[in-house]
């Protein structure tokens, strides 16, 4: 057992609760260590109160914990404290940017916001054909609302795209480029620096869907040079119900808040409102206080292991998963070819067996994987399949999990008679 697995194994109660189960679905959502569960529970038990409201001692202590959590998550991704906006999840964060931009087009944030964010007919939004629906549908909406055109980088037969493909789609009219750092289906790792350079060259804003990168390897959002980024706590050992929108401060302070209400304002009259600077302008209503505490505990936990160690461990486990898929007759790897850099997930097609049957078969043998289109229907349509099966690794995945997966995978085609 390598150092990461031996160290973290006992931290995860789910492993003891299900000793005979290999959980290979961390790309969908991750399990939580006791440190995260305990941090949130302890806060709820003793320190919970509404934040940023009132003047009681309880409110002050909860607000301190809430803002301290923001500072720790910010530091985890190389961001300043007030550049992290709590959202419901990554989907919510991306919607916040797209909706804010359509409000800017309506003039809701004033002339400066309209000039920076206000798209209109003739303007172009660029995504890739491999995006998760979370990073596609908000841009479809923005295009529909503003009259801008949605363009996309087509993927190849393996579901991959290159910087040259992107360069061919970007024009002087491109205003936004939105793309995943790591694809949740193909495992493709985007050339972020090159994308940023192309986008900046035409004055376009960039939004990075960092859902599958921030949990798995060191990410410094400021150094990457993107303008906005989105990620979710539940994919990085934290709670559900909270995610983060990161943005460069001057952009966040200018972007109109998509949702309005309590806690977001400086002055309100019966006719109008003045909004606070970021992050508060975006956090309307009662905030996800204990979830923020859990999110920060998750980032502390990962920081203590060390993100380079997390990445190295996952690299090793992913290599084993790829080997298992490559070694099984009639099973085809989707996306990044074996041996190339990829995120810690492996999607595959079992010839002659529907992905849902594959998933059911593996589940019966104690292996949790994900089947379906993984919220990436256009990509699956391009690949010519309705569904794939995906196995994914995280800090608590060990070689025994992969061995169990490998043995069961070898049985799938014989079981369904697809090898005859
Ligand atoms: N983008 C990618 C690449 C994802 O993998 C996911 C989650 N499957 C999302 C966006 C959406 O994340 P959430 O459901 O937490 O908003």
Automatic annotation (TrEMBL):
Residues 23-405 form the Aminotransferase class V domain. GO terms for molecular function: cysteine desulfurase activity. Coiled coil: none annotated. The keyword Cytoplasm does not apply. Gene3D superfamilies: Aspartate Aminotransferase, domain 1, Type I PLP-dependent aspartate aminotransferase-like (Major domain). Keywords: Pyridoxal phosphate, Transferase. CDD domains: SufS_like. Its cofactor is pyridoxal 5'-phosphate. It catalyses: (sulfur carrier)-H + L-cysteine = (sulfur carrier)-SH + L-alanine. Its EC number is 2.8.1.7. Signal peptide: none annotated. Catalyzes the removal of elemental sulfur and selenium atoms from L-cysteine, L-cystine, L-selenocysteine, and L-selenocystine to produce L-alanine. PANTHER family: CYSTEINE DESULFURASE, CYSTEINE DESULFURASE 1, CHLOROPLASTIC. Belongs to the class-V pyridoxal-phosphate-dependent aminotransferase family. Csd subfamily. This is Cysteine desulfurase. The lineage of its organism: Bacteria, Bacillati, Actinomycetota, Actinomycetes, Micrococcales.
């Amino acid at each position: 057992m390598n150092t990461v697995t031996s160290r973290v194994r006992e931290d995860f109660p789910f492993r003891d609760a299900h000793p005979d189960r290999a959980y290979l679905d961390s790309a969908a959502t991750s399990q939580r260590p006791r440190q995260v569960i305990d941090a949130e529970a302890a806060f709820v038990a003793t320190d919970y109160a509404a934040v940023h409201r009132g003047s009681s001692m309880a409110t002050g202590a909860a607000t301190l914990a809430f803002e301290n959590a923001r500072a720790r998550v910010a530091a985890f991704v190389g961001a300043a404290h007030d550049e992290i906006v709590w959202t419901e999840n990554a989907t919510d964060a991306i919607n916040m940017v797209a909706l804010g931009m359509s409000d800017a087009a309506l003039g809701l944030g004033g002339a400066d916001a309209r000039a920076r964010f206000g798209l209109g007919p003739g303007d172009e939004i660029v995504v890739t054909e491999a995006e998760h629906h979370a990073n596609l549908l908000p841009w479809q909406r923005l295009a529909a609302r503003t009259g801008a055109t949605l363009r996309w980088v087509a993927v190849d037969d393996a579901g991959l795209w290159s910087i040259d493909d992107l360069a061919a789609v970007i024009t002087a009219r491109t205003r936004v480029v939105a793309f995943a750092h790591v694809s949740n289906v193909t495992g493709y790792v985007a050339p972020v620096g090159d994308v940023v350079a192309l986008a900046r060259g035409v004055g376009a804003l960039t939004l990075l869907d960092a859902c599958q990168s921030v949990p798995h390897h060191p990410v410094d959002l400021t150094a990457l040079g993107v303008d906005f980024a989105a990620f979710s706590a539940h994919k990085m050992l934290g709670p559900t119900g909270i995610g983060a929108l990161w943005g460069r401060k001057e952009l966040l302070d200018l972007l109109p808040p998509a949702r309005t209400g309590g806690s977001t304002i400086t002055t309100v009259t019966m006719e109008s409102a003045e909004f606070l600077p970021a992050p508060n302008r975006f956090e309307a209503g009662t905030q996800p206080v204990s979830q923020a505490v859990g999110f920060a505990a998750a980032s502390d936990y990962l920081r203590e292991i060390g993100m380079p160690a997390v990445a190295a461990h996952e690299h090793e486990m992913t290599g084993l998963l790829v080997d298992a898929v490559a070694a099984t007759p009639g099973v085809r790897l989707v996306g990044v070819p074996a041996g190339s850099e990829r995120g810690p997930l492996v999607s595959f097609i079992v010839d002659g067996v529907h992905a849902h049957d594959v998933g059911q078969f593996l589940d019966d043998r104690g292996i949790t994987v994900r089947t379906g289109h993984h919220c990436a229907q256009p990509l699956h349509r391009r690949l010519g399949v309705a569904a794939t099966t995906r196995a994914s690794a995280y800090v608590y995945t060990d070689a025994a999990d992969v061995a169990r997966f490998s043995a069961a995978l070898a049985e799938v085609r014989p079981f369904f008679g697809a090898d005859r």
